[in-house]
Design goal:
Length: 126
């Protein structure tokens, strides 16, 4: 199998060379999508009975793995499957929720602080 060790592939060096954490995360997610799609293509290929029975041996297996690796790499790079984007959204969902909660808490605090002032003003008008 061509894609046995993702850490042995040159893309890890490319990811480590990037200093920006957001770009590094994006490249790592893209590499994960590449691995996922490669595995998906391999498993889909196993379901075709015609390919299991035909002759070709190790050479055919090598070339089909190379084809699957190239196809999965291009699909991951294009981003059309959206797997990396979806994972990124899920990873950052907690951050977004915390920001929303903080904004609501600040608004509620401002409302509570303003409420007694209005109440006192209403009492002194009587």
């Amino acid at each position: 199998m061509l894609y046995v060790n993702p850490l042995g592939v040159g893309n890890v060096d490319r990811i480590n060379a990037v200093k920006d954490p957001q770009k590094k995360e994006k490249l790592a997610l893209q590499e994960f999508e590449h691995l996922f799609l490669f595995t998906l293509l391999q498993e889909m290929r196993k379901t075709i009975p015609l390919l299991k029975e035909t002759e070709g041996g190790q050479e055919r297996d090598l070339y089909t793995e190379m084809l699957d690796d190239a196809l999965s790499g291009q699909m991951a790079q294009s981003g059309q499957m959206g797997i990396a984007k979806q994972i990124e959204t899920q990873l950052h969902a907690a951050e977004t929720q915390n920001q929303v909660r903080k904004a609501f808490a600040e608004r509620d605090l401002e409302t509570r602080q303003a409420a007694p002032v209005k109440a006192l003003g209403a009492v002194s008008d009587k």
